[in-house]
User: Fold these one by one.
Assistant:
Number 1:
Amino acid sequence: MSRDVLVIGGGIAGIQASLDLAEQGFTVYLVERLPSIGGKMAQLDKTFPTNDCSICIMGPKLFEVERHPNTQLLTYTDVEAVKGGAGNFTVTVRKKARYVDEAKCTACGLCAEKCPVSVPDVFNMNMDTRSAIYKYFPQGIPSVYTIDDSVCRIFKGKKCNICAKICEAKAVNYEQKDAVFDLNVGAIIVATGFDVFDPSDIKPYGYGTIPDVITAMEFERLLNASGPTGGHLERLSSLNTKAEIEQLEKQIKHAKAGLKRAEKNGQNSDKVDEVKKRLAEMNESLDGLKAKEASLAELRDIAFVQCVGSRDLRYNAHCCSYGCMHSVKEAVVATEHESELKSTIFFTDMRAYGKEFHEYCLRGGSEYGIHFVRGRVAEIAQGDGGRPVVWCEDMDTRKVEQHPFDLVVLATACVPSQGSASLATMLGFNLDESGFVKTDPNKPVDTSVQGIFVCGCAQGPMDIPSSVSLASAAASMAVQTVKALG
Amino acid sequence: METELRIGVFVCHCGINIAGVLDIEDLCEYAGTLPNVVTVQPNLFTCAETGTSGIKNAVKEHDLNRVVVAACTPRTHEPIFRASCQEAGINPYFFEMVNIREHCSWVHRHDREAAQGKARDLIRMAVARAMFLEPIETFKSKVEPRALVIGAGIAGMSSALALAGEGFDVTLLEKKAEMGGLLRDLHKVAPSEVGAGELVEQKVAAIKQEGRIQCFTSATLEEVSGYVGNYSATFSSNGNTHTHKVGAIIVATGGAPLKPMGLYNYDGKRVITQSELETKLKSGKLDAKSIVMIQCVGARIPERNYCSRICCMVAIKNSLHIKEIAKDAKVFVLYRDIQAYGVENEALFLKAKEAGVRFIRYNLESPPVVGDGNVEIYHPAMGKEVPLPAELVVLSTPIVAHDDAESVSRILKVPVNEYRFFLEAHAKLSPLDFATNGIYLCGNAHYPATVREAISQALGAASRASIILSHDAIERVGTVARVDQELCSSCFACVKVCPYQVPHMDEGGKAMIEPMQCQGCGICVAECPAEAIQFGYVSDAQIMAACEALCA
Amino acid sequence: MNNFEPLIAVFSCHYCSYAAADLAGSSRIQYPPNIRVIKIPCTGRVSVNHILKALECGADGVYVAGCLEGTCHFISGNFKAKQRVQYAKNLLSEINMEPERVQMYFMSAAEGAKFANVAKEMTETIRELGPSPLGQNKSE
Amino acid sequence: MSIQDLIERTKVSFCQDCGVCTGSCPVSRVLPGFSPQQMVGKFVLSADLGLEDEALSDRDMWSCLTCALCLQRCPSKVEYLEFVRAVREEAFRTGNKATFAHDGVIETIVNMQRGGLHQNKTAWAREAGQIAESGEYYLFVGCLPYFDVLFRDMGISSLGSASHMLKMLNKLGIEPVVSDEERCCGHDLLWSGNVDVFKELAAFNIEMIKRCGSKKVIFGCPEGYVAFKAYYPLYFGELDFEVVHFYDLVGEQIKDGALKLSRVEEQTVTYHDPCRLGRMAGIYEAPRELIAGMPGMTLVEMERNRENAVCCGVSCWANCSSYSKQIQMDRLKEAEATGADALITACPKCKIHFTCALSSSDMKMEVKDLTEVMAASALEH
């Protein structure tokens, strides 16, 4: 028997549920599979309808849940098996090796600076790079670094111990092993959140082939001050071009050095000429790239495409609940970055059903000049210079129109998180037709298994306040369970 | 201060993070020259075990009564060092932290000389500030393990039951003669298809069985005084007046659908509201063969510019129920935007389409016109006005706040918005809390909600309230403002400026700040013209000392 | 005048601008070493007198850095601060000191770069204005 | 079938009023006022108001190309294709018929095949290769002989394609049945509402193939393939022979090494997916693999390819007008923009329509039939 509670998932729902429980005096284990808690909300730039900076309002909660004497944070940890029932669950968890001693690491970041590996940064939606030893995001909690053993040179059998050498706290430990242990709890709260739908499947939208068609979450990172552009609004094509320029400049520098050496050593003139010729070619393509970059510098017209993979019987029948407001917010924030910017939102139904939502949309139109077009986008073609062209029937004028944009942002569906099906099997609860955790509408946080509760987007697509409300509700049910049975 | 000030300064290398840019030896030497500094110690990592025990030992060895650590950001490390101070036997607030990492070594790597100067300045300012630090004590306030729940609709009843389930006593107030609220008159709730009355009766029965819940019907809240953990609520019920001591309060006063007087020929007979339709469905008295429903009646219009969230689903639910009774009945739903968010709602929307319910969109510029036996609507595909047969017209009207929301708001000193829905502490992260500690909200009182949502919020509000109720006493760190009533000139400046409406005038006409309610922002402290408000946590003396130490 | 290095006091709130400064640090964004941060719980804590006192004590410039407008952790503290900064500016005009020596800035905890830019901007502004006429206080 | 049943069966009332169909429809882009969504919306409302005659007399249904792009993209999975087919069937009965191009000649020829006609459908085949009178394989030639007559002036040899198909089969050791008794597959009748005659022809063909004892019926034409594969079973239940597309069959043989593709002249080509072969039969990759498998051939894709390909602008020989031309020209320009020397298609009708459009332009693009292109590579040695 146990009166402790396990919370699975360290996003805003899991954090809120943990805090509610901890503050009522219950011991909480908060398990998060990633190196830091924070979840999707930590990736957002701002939140609607108040335009609050997401990490600013969330940051204090991250600290609070880490520091609370009644919580035990188990990050970088997977749930592996569950036995028992309400009042007495035995949960086996695997705390994955970070290869960094959490108690010693001071998060100084020197290791990451010197690490020779560079891989796409998932937190920044792969639009930036990180090193093999990394912090999931700057404000991540616990504030420690982690070695990604899937990319680290050491774990590929290569010679490298730069991070261990540079770390003065002696926190790096390549010998660290996963720790597998059991937790005894009286109730479990599932707060495993959601995934963002991958729109590459929807071929007519050109995601993955047209560079300036991006997802709403990618746009969120582009708006963010800690994002890949430092919050400077740029098109992805411009970022790509910049990367190409950087690459080419490196090559030119290299070639120039080679030329100097060749001339100095008095090598035969043919070879020198050849290098000169190549250098000239490279300079020419550099000029071309720079011209391209200049042409991409201005970002004026952004399209927001709603219901991408949602309300679509071919992909997900359900509505993502927050997409309309999310896009209005992104349009508002983008305009705050760049006042000359024009945003157009292509929508099916404008689902602004929450408190202050409808008013927010109206303000978006009147104060930020957002252009709302009723009509779902039919296809996104590639126009002149690779610019995305949006085809759509305007349902108010009943005209088929095509408009070129500098950037197209896809409001992608909210889908069950990757591990939710296997977690359901492991814990034995049912899922609904969309793959979210099934609940009785009149018992909104009860799963089909007694003593296991659900909150946040694991239960279904919902906005942040609903997730937070549900988290508190799950905490209440967990308390009632452990008080009765634990 | 009577006792001699004895300050210890600890300077962190943070490996090479600080020491790589700053000359720690020089900083230590310099700190030693500052007034009242009796010991200075460098550490490789002050936050490591050796560092914190170093602080503790130094406190004992040098009889320190103030500790200054020059290291990284207090936002992450202050709690660690405060704990060390406490363990060493000095007040944890006799501690000051200097950020020479994030604010110095990391950001001035290329100008070491200036960085060194800045670090010296920062340490000097901290030592100066440390001289004026005040001890902060935590204080306790007893908690009444009983909650007051105002409103016994589905939200209030669910909250009360959850609180009782968690082991707390509940006083439940209902202004009507019976519990149940809005659901009493309704037919079935979607998507569970449970009878609304049945759901109410289940809850009422559970409440009656639950010894911890005391329910008062025909009740009116009259007065509330006190603060978190310790409220006193006076209310009348069936002619008697009661006063209950409660630790927390949940506002679940609900809302009601708008009566669409003067809209679309509303007459309550041939043109009715959705709830009137549900009464008909419940009694089986629906015989119309053609029904037209009009959405957004009185909502999302300039006078009432909000979306009432639930009306689309109510219309969809009821149209399905009509189709169940009479498969051949024609049902048209005229909408502006269908709000079928999420999984369940969208599925029900599809189910209605499958059942043959027709959905036709209209624009606010060309609203439907209710005629005799028909409703004329501009049909976009037809490109013209089309009369739809309508033996019955059903208007979907928004949930509006109850008239008494304002009086509840006044009694509890919690705000409402322009449509008189109660205003939560934070739209995103505190949706169920009021800015005032110890008072929570749920259900339609907050904003229109489906039954699922109302129950979720009710359970959530119960959890929030339980945080207070689960403690015998609430501990609060005294980082709060206090009024020196001797100095108070009764100018009301603090009353006006406080974002949380905490300061108030006591019987003697002097300002009072209830420490349990104070949030510790210090806004009133800066506002008070008489310097009557003390704020030991960040006192004027500390700030002034830091300013004076700006220059060597 | 080019060698003049201004001394600038910054009143920085715990929840946003101090956090922004921390982020500038962990992101290693370099900015001029002329500012001295005084941490307060909320910019609403800063009184007009604090601002003036900093000038009197030798600061060549003072700015208050709070949360973005509408997102103050304490609801309205930053608005109050904005008013008080304006008040201080008006007073400076009266005593014939440049009101630009005092400024109000708003930033979120996620805006490390903005913190650095503001520090840069303010340093430049004060450098342009030259040393505070109260400079002699420094040596006293 | 009642109109309400039709609505329910085709899920047209599931429409979300979102406009994806119209925004995608190649006709809507060039013919203002035409919209699949509007067509459906009008129909449903008219039916609901009891105005069934009005619903069935609408002419919009004949503007539809039945290209299935709207069906492909509709988020509500409205069965547009089946809706149009069924509505045309109902409308045809009330006298609301399509307007046929080419003076209706083709429709008439098809209708003529109902009687006790004895055709001369094997002459070309005997010339081109070896055929049998009965056996496992049946080669369904379809309309190619008539097209050969009709469009010879345009320089299109439809029989060339048939001959090459036969030669390649022979090379694989297959001597298929080709029959004089074969009738039109009925595809065009089905899509112009004349279901009664469609059924007559279908019944005749099924009987005829049974008589030949064939177990595998090979098609080169996507329309015949789809008519047999999807629509014959709808009316006659499961067929007792297999319906095989030539490209699938040949593709297998190439993979097995039974057929070799030799080097062809270096060229860059692009491939146009016929609606019937692509969206309706789901055959996207087989033709591409064949093209890519010919050494010397470089395949480049148009922006709109596979499930997003656009129609060649005409279906069922109905409604060929300025908008068809516009659609064709846009598609040809798209092909030209890829830098390809030739546009390869896999449907004799697409080839005819594109060739026709090309003849009135100064584009240098060539339009080729995949079977013929392949023959050059497969039959060389």
Note: Residues 236-295 of chain A form one domain.
Number 2:
Amino acid sequence: MLAFILRRLLQSLIVMLAVAFIAFLMFRFVGDPVEGMMGVDARLADREALRDRLGLNDPFYMQFWTFVKNAARGEFGISYRLQQPVTQLILSRLPATIELAVVSASLALIVGVTLGVFTAIHGRLPPSSRETLTALAAIILPALALWFLGRGLLWSFGAAALIFVSTAFWAKSFFSQAVMAVSLVGVSLPTFLIGIGLIFVFAVELKLLPSFGRGQTVELWKGWSTGFLTKSGLLSLILPAVTLSLFQMTLIMRLVRAEMQEVLRSDYIRFARARGLPESTINFRHALKNTMVPVITITGLQLGSIIAFAIITETVFNWPGVGSLFVNSVQAVDVPVMAAYLLFVALVFVVINLIVDLLYYLVDPRLRVDGRSGRA
Amino acid sequence: MKIQRFAGLAALLASTLMASSAMAETLRWARASDALTLDPHSQNQGVTHNFAHHIYETLVDRAVDGSLTPRLATEWYVKEDDPNVWVFKLRHDVKFHDGADFTAEDVVFSLDRARSENSNMRQLHSAIASVAAVDDHTVEVTMTGPSPLYPNNLTNTFVMDKGWSEAHSLQSVQDYAAGEDNYAVRNANGTGPYILESREVDVRSVLKRNEAHWAETKPQVTEIIYLPIAENATRIAALLSGEVDLVQDVPVQDIERLKNTAGLKVETGPENRIIYFGYRMDDKPLKSSNVADKNPIADPRVREAMHLAIDREAIKRVVMRGNSLPAGVAMPPFVHGWTPELDAFPAPDPERAKALLAEAGYPDGFSVTLDTPNNRYVNDEAISQAVVGMLGRIGIKVTLASRPVAQHSPLITGDNTDFYLLGWGVPTFDSAYIFNDLIHSRNGHFGAYNPSGYADPALDAKIEGLATEIDVEKRDADIAEIWAQVQRDRVLLPIHNQLLAYAMKDNLTLAVHPENQPLMTMVTYGQ
Amino acid sequence: MTETDAQTPVLSVRDLVVDFPLRRGNFRALHGVSFDIAPGEVLGVVGESGAGKSMTGAAVIGLLTPPGRITSGEVYLQGQRIDQLPEAEMVKLRGKRIGMVMQDPLTSLNPLFTVGQQLIETIRQHLPLSEAEARARAVSLLEEAGIPRAAERIDSYPHQFSGGMRQRVVIALAIAADPELVIADEPTSALDVSVQAQVIKVLKKLCESRGAAIMLITHDMGVIAQIADRILVMNAGRIVESGPVGQVIRHPREPYTIKLIDSIPTLNRESEAPVPAEAATPESAQDAYVRVENLTRDFSLGGGGSFFGRLFGGKDKIFRAVNDVSFSIRRGETYGLVGESGSGKSTCAKMIAGLIPPSSGRIFVDGADVWSAEGAASRRRNVQMIFQDPYASLNPRWRVGSIVAEPIKALKLTSNRSEIEDRVADLLRKVRLDPVAMRKYPHEFSGGQRQRIAIARALSTQPAFIVCDEPTSALDVSVQAQVLDLMSGLQEEYGLTYLLISHNLAVIRQMANDVGVMRQGVLEESGPVDEIFDHPKAEYTRMLLDAVPDLDKVA
Amino acid sequence: MTEAPPPEAPVEAAAPARGFWARFWDSDVFWSYRHNPVAVVSSLVALTLILAAVFAPWIAPHDPFNPATLQLMDGFTPPGEAAMSGTVYRFGTDDQGRDLLSTILYGSRVSLFVGFAATLFSMTLGVSLGLFAGYRGGLADTIIMRVADVQLSFPAILIALLIFGVAQGVIPPNKQESMAIWVLILAIGLANWAQFARTVRGAAMVERQKDYVSAARIMGVPGPAIAFKHVLPNVLGPVLVIATISLALAIIEEATLSYLGVGVPPTQPSLGTLIRIGQRFLFSGEWWILFFPALMLILLALSVNLLGDWLRDALNPKLRQ
């Protein structure tokens, strides 16, 4: 076990180094940082001088070595754009991103797993055409009625959505098939479009939710400011969290469904039936736990990528997290921030991977006992 | 991070206490980007200066018409016996936010700091030989030579408190290339009409009215919440949903919609910025052209054809939705040296343009790549795109290369472009500012944004002479001559001057500032 | 109903019809099956794959896989009709009144729950017991099922038990709530012979002590002979014959039953011993066509083997799969290698065929070391292999013609297309398949046919030596007989030399001249087949022979 | 043998081998296609869109990629209304006076080309690496899969951004526009190979244990030949499924990259570029500039995704009946 963790740590180190290298390689090409730093009046000679001072004229390997050396000490230098220590900058932005990521990840996980299980259990039989027609009629007719009554499209859509959710109770296989199809819309739309659409509907038209930022924040501890404790903070979280989670939610749901269907076909589930266990025990005790084993890895990786994935969501909602910091830095060629951000993402990846491995140990007794490395 | 906690509490308190007071007016001010730093001498950048103007003050200020007005200096003149010395008389009874008195020592300190090694403002003060305080309210600035226009360079140079700065070791500007941190980046102590309450970079800054400010009339806005929102759509959405009161960077296409929205209004006005196209016009072949043996643009007839191909009115009407002033000269009307004659432009004449091309030996046109930024100027990419079409119609096949400005600018400063779009603001309101960087041939001190290859030693000498010429009439004549030559040789291909638009709640009034540096002190409430 | 007895049958099935509405039309799996099981009776249901025997069991307990359904007929449990019960009622029946044991103990238990958790949840589902009481009952059940130190092991996970032990757990689970009937679907097919016998005994003992009847579904007549009271022979969804075990096995009436029983190889030599090849003088090993000398093979169990492992000083765990094995095969003869799973016999086969290199030791075929550079070329021509699973040994995406021709092309024997085609047709005829087969894909053939295609492929390079790794263990007995016949025929015709790997002692006895018995990588004993089978020297061999269920042991 | 398999094909000899089309029509996959209305509809939609894109030069009323023919003054004409020049544009025009119908046809051509080429590229790369890793095992496997893991945890967009950034630096500025589309393909392709590699590697590890591979090895068929001739055909099913989904993904990624400001030149816009341009006019009332390209993108991605969904089920042997 210890050896295993050590081995993983070493691998992680290699991963971090590789990412650092790639990041570094890329930054040489994204643009000239001097441009943003000097302002338009600067003379060519001054530009050259600054390049020299920044070490941009040093040989490549020297620059990389300096970078790694400093990064190992948690030193990423001073942001070219904002002229503050990068570490401090990233730390001050971290709470926003982590809160957003945690909420979206939980949302994706809870809704994804629930829907995945639901569709796996109830989606085995295609809905009868009668069920389909009743359900469709129940959804479309009230919506049309509302529209004709002049309540507007949003009301109609709202009503349709509500009734659609209610089909989960009375038209289960219709609901699961429909969820499968509708969920594809979530992955067929670019995230930024979803975000802008949500802003348009919920902020501009309905004026229900804030369109940008984090609302009021409260400082908890050592600069960790949270939006969880204020109403505006919580309201501000809704749209970005939904936008960010939609994609992962769809993936998790489909993954859980596929794995669960596989598990439900296995011998031990058949045997559990033969033992006379009730359906609920079979689905939620036996099948679900077995489903989680393969789901953990992929989900872990997916959730890890939420933080990096947030760059687009954060941009659209002006969410003050590390993602929007990164995008702003890319535009200004703020190399120290970009490098630190990429390493940060790599770090998240490495940590999540370790957690996933440990979770494996917890969930799957086959790994716990013989203590050998590798996943079955 | 202490500020933040404090600010949270303060904001809470403030909002509860002041809710009843009719005088208290909070303004939520959104624009596309944040000030880069609070250090007033670190960056020479518009947004940063704009923010700093609320906290710090300059010696002289510029009025909307471009003229200089007193601010911390009440009067200034060239010393009678020495044309190289500028004398500034300072305002009395001015206090910094921390209560310290404003004196000549502070000005000396600030000017020295602004021209120190790491300051990005030092270019503006490169002609200074020394600065000295004569008495508590008089400062003498000795120049290396006659500098008649020097006060123009002072409109963005802010005065810091010497005592406060020394207490926080701020004598030199942050050398961030060396990894230094600096107190002034995140803290401010100025004499300005607003006091910094809290600041989260890129997120929000809160400013409170300075009740001890020297000005007689207090601004109506008692609190400013400054909110940078980078995405255009999100920024406009925030205004539409009532989450902000004022949006400074309004995309032209949204002006109509906002005007027609109940409760909102839009103010528009010209910006002191010219949008133009530049090209390589020396004899070396173009890098991106199918004509490999020579440079077609070097032929004046080709340049004329290109000018004739452009339909500025169409660009104004469609791309800019009417929000531009088409230009015939690469100089905003605010700038000293501008005349209506220079700014006249010919009606588009594609037929004549084609004939000229044929005459020059390119009956079938030629191909060239146009480099355009896509996130810098109002609809920059769309303008370029429209021009691609117009040039296409006379046979010049243009490939459009569109980049963020961070990648676009190096192409120009690094001589890596054949044909490009650029915008040029003129903070000094003087033609020399344009000539120095756009017209003068490139060397270590001039022509940083002139990749045209256009080089005329006589013209260069004339440009250099403008800086020290005291004889106003002679200088004006020189400027006119230079412009005449530039226009004759068609060194630049001007398109238009940008119009700025500010959108706000309709109970506010704020006029557009030509340098896009509006002061919230100017905001008035009521119809 | 025939109620001559005072007793009501535990299970009574009448005219059971099961249909599978498939897309190519309806497939009728059971065509009106009727039978009774008396209380405490053990009914053996036997038949080849596709006979419908498992289907009958699944239909009784109500666990037909969709879209299968009972179209008509009736099922009574203790006189109560159960085939039309709603699912909610059926759930209460399962486990409580009808228990079930499935084939594969490795997959029947949920790997993520301890044995105890699974037992306790089953017990508490059916009996009003507290957690502690259920646990006590679970322990005693495990003890009864013959699990040593049951009280400790109850908290172990399934993977910590061996296959045989797991099947005992499965049996314990099946009888946890004292059902009246236990349906055992091939309960021993996945187990080694030595374990098989014990598990059968446990099943019988547990059911006897509770008076539970058993419906024992199996393809193995031997197992039925061992414990069943009555036998039901099924074929193609119908009952062919039924009656007391002794009677049916000794005096089968129906032609199908007769054929079925005839095709079962037995340990007792009925026919002639396989004739040694012409020059069959028992010479020294020098003459041997295949010679295996001190063959050893180690496997690393990982952990320490990799680069990182070494970096952290992890110890390389070595597992010796084959340990110093030597034997030889004379030209034209068959050498049988027997052993249970994990004995290393397949590893031997793979080393000889050139699939995995030995750790030490040498293999000579026709005098050439097959693992030397020169030997490899001759090995490819001379050595071929036939595999166990006819479904996995043919590439499903290739046409049969290409499959059979592959060795010809790989060894560049000829590249003329029509010549290749002729040869393939010829080969297919040799294995008694229509040459049209070459245009089809493997999935269009049955298991026996596929194994013949595999043989045709093995023959296509005209090898002298064929390694046969369990060539018939995936096949039904009647098909097995055909394939074995074909192999013998080909051996005679072409003077082939075989290495026959099998866990089935009867098959070895029937086919081999010499035999080697392997156990845990070691060759326990080796010698002429009759000598070893009739006078086994090694304890292990004797145990193996004893464990084989034999029709002759029928009570 | 827990239960009887469905009846096997008629035994022995003489059933004639059927023709390709007959077998195709009767195959399980096509049967499930014929009986799945969602699959039929989505494939028809996808096919229509793809054909419309391919034949855009013959269908589209204008050539939006030729700037010389554009009427700037016709810009922002609403759908169905007469423009300044008197022309009526069915879907309206955009800010450059381009006919939107033509533009989305041409634009989806670009998007589809990028999508197909990127998918093909990532497929080739992923399948080769996956086969190599799965068939070879050992250190090569560890390294490849580790890289794939890392890659999977970085969103494709981020990776594509990085690659795009590097390409910007490597390619001389005046070549960048002509290379842009290839860089895009490379970037998206490189960002998506890991899914293929993982799947193929998993499948290859299963396949290489199969006896037909052993049989080929005994004959001395060399490793790469086994990997490609034997293993590859048997892992193509899941590859096809992933290819479908990653086609949709590539189209969306291209759009997102355009949104972030990297991508094809605006004079030859893809759907993504059109959406980026269009979203500027979301609040200003010119809804059609965003609406039609977005609709096209959704239809395209959704129909391809639905097809992939069906294919996944149809090719899953365990779901077959």
Note: DSSP finds 21 helices and 20 strands in chain C.
